[in-house]
Design goal:
CBS domain (chains A, B); disordered N terminus; Tetracycline Repressor, domain 2; magnesium ion transmembrane transporter activity (chains A, B); mainly alpha; MgtE N-terminal fold; CBS-domain; three-stranded mixed β-sheet; globular; homodimer
Chain lengths: 474, 474
Amino acid sequence: MAESEIDEQIHAETLPEKADEHEQLDEENRLKPEYVASVIEALEEEDEGRAYDLVEPLHPADIADLLELLQPEQRHLLAAAITDLMSGEVISELNDYVRDDMIESLPASAVAGIAEQLDTDDAVQLIEDLDPRDQRAILAELDPENRAVIENALSYPEETAGRLMQRELVAVPEHLKVGDLIDFMRDQDDLPTEFWEVFIVDHRHRPVGACQLSWILRTPRHIPLTDVMQRDQTLIPVGMDQEEVALRFQKYALISAAVVDEGGRLVGQLTVDDIVHIISEEAGEDALLMSGAGEGDINEPIRDAYSARVRWLIANLGTALVASLIIAAFGAAIEQLVALAILMPVVASIGGNAGTQTMAVSVRALATNQLTKSNTRRILWREMRVAMLNGVTVAALIGIATAVIFSPMLGLVIATAVVINICTAGLAGVAVPVLFDRVGQDPAVASSVFVTMITDSMGFFAFLGLAVACGLAG
Amino acid sequence: MAESEIDEQIHAETLPEKADEHEQLDEENRLKPEYVASVIEALEEEDEGRAYDLVEPLHPADIADLLELLQPEQRHLLAAAITDLMSGEVISELNDYVRDDMIESLPASAVAGIAEQLDTDDAVQLIEDLDPRDQRAILAELDPENRAVIENALSYPEETAGRLMQRELVAVPEHLKVGDLIDFMRDQDDLPTEFWEVFIVDHRHRPVGACQLSWILRTPRHIPLTDVMQRDQTLIPVGMDQEEVALRFQKYALISAAVVDEGGRLVGQLTVDDIVHIISEEAGEDALLMSGAGEGDINEPIRDAYSARVRWLIANLGTALVASLIIAAFGAAIEQLVALAILMPVVASIGGNAGTQTMAVSVRALATNQLTKSNTRRILWREMRVAMLNGVTVAALIGIATAVIFSPMLGLVIATAVVINICTAGLAGVAVPVLFDRVGQDPAVASSVFVTMITDSMGFFAFLGLAVACGLAG
């Protein structure tokens, strides 16, 4: 565990000044509102020079953040003011919707110019969501080699390794020595801009091993690469879904991985800096999907947000009507004892909350491959035990309160109904997502509607039904 | 965009066999249930040799998965059967709860032995959650150098860069040439097991630049490092929270980053393979927190799951009682027109769903620094427009159905109440998380309870109040 270091020599050079971003960023690394306001002010006063000077010191990722914070009209004004700062790096850091909006306002040749600067994966991302006509116009402006590479990438389905991979990589045959590889890299002009591993391939271009750069650097020149490389590497099939790719990178702590076609030949590589966005997206989207908010991107056009969300509200309307039918069946009881109407939402609400808790846990465990067929029964049993404990605690509280305010019998009825509903919620919270997963549906998407329907219906039914059965009303 | 490659020579060597994991893993890279069952069978028959043979071909990350899938007693049996496969890598891949459970059953000297194999960050993770007595016992077994390093790490607060960083790194003074650095790395025996960048430091050990290994490999020996290195690097203060660290890694697409103390001196490094777990955890935990499921880990002890969840159910009970009070105020109206009791949960439920949608979007945007003071007003206005569209659509559906089944006036009342409640939900769904964020609270934790309380109360109040105001009952 020792830190490796060469003896230092003391010398009096001053530190190079770090770009002074402190004026623009707050302590959480977000752009300060005052700074954003000053950029907007410059744009509104049509003072392009001042806008440029304000933005110039920013890191490309912060320029992207700035563009996202602005209104659409302001974005275009700013982009026009800082054309030479609008690098490929800025563009590839932009939110998808904001990028598409900006790209659509540029001429095809300008977009092609940006695409040529980028690695294939970023270039593909730049144009994949444009409409086919715009796409063709931009492709026509690219030089033939780049065009072929991008067209090839677009031939793979969206969200697969084939779309995400970069074609730029370093692959060498097995017979090289460490020294040969270093000489090769020193001579070669068109190495990828960033790479972390070298892939070793056989004569059919199939990967036989991978070699971290640090292993090359620490090894004498005369050692064969095959003695240094790791033979057992994780290969990503070109058609693999990005969610699956993200899980592999996490599980095996990968920095980069070889992508292979059906014939097992090396066709590209994936690097962790690109996968990090996917890991974050895939992990974060479950909360959005469970709530029925679709992609839930604040930059999504209002029309898209409306159509994604309204369908779940309408589904919810349907399930709420099921609950209403149950209440309607007990209409006479409610007329007789209005306390039932006052208390019934409590039973439904507690059940809904308990169901959402269990569902969130199950969906997350399914997404991270922790909940599989091997332990479903154990987890179901575990959740039932948690539900029993929760049910008894909450039932005691509401039961005693109801007994004091209304009547002991009604207290007993509501307590029993709460226990029944929380246990139902525990069961449904595991079973519904697991069933969706088994039939190949994303458990985050539709579980919520079903779980809520079950807990609402069971809440009203158990409470009102027990009240009638106990002769309280009806 | 060309792939760099040395001319290949054809030769007839056969491919090395990849460890045959196909028998154990399904197409989604999860352990097959039949395989897990066969391991359990071997354990139950006390056939340790067969258990060992079954597990031996697995990758350490898959051995960790296997242990997580087993029941606690089975885990200990398996660990005893495969002692020499229980490497530091397996241990550091284990879920926190499972790891603590397993570590507690081992003698301190065995744990110390595992810790010595690991990088500092993994060694710290191994013992940080143990109770202080166990911790001291293990530290006492470590050699003094490692003990000092781990004690230093434990002196930083949990979930900060100081806890997460590894002390192993390569730091060299500024005056070196590329060739000197390569020679140094070839000579040095105790380089870190994995590293991706070399840090260049001044005489006070403050970082002045960083150099990707690929830049070193492609550069002739006589070039000074200061000509190759990147001066403008992202430095992570040792006290920075892990969520913030994860955001920096994502935003600036970092592979590794230097960690500096208060004096700006280099004290450790963070690498992306460790940060990936944090990115996934931080992004995934919002769904769990919003549902009130706490950490929501399926391996969490039942007692912990109960205490995390029951407090939110009790809070929900409190908010449901607020809604009940509102209903109680309209008791006379309900007695007169039981249709009100039948329909009122619909209004509350739709509002709750709309509120959860907006809240999920806002919480995610806050977590990814996309929703800041600079655009709060714009996002609020955006969400209000989405709410208006949703409200009008859903109100039309339920309004017409109610008008047909009950009465036109009741249809008008419920439609108006739905619009009011969905708009309230849109407002609350943005405002509540933003307010929590402004006062320094995690918006995912408590927003749900408040948003639901607002939409439930507003749903009942608007619907019942309008019904009374329109003379339908009361």
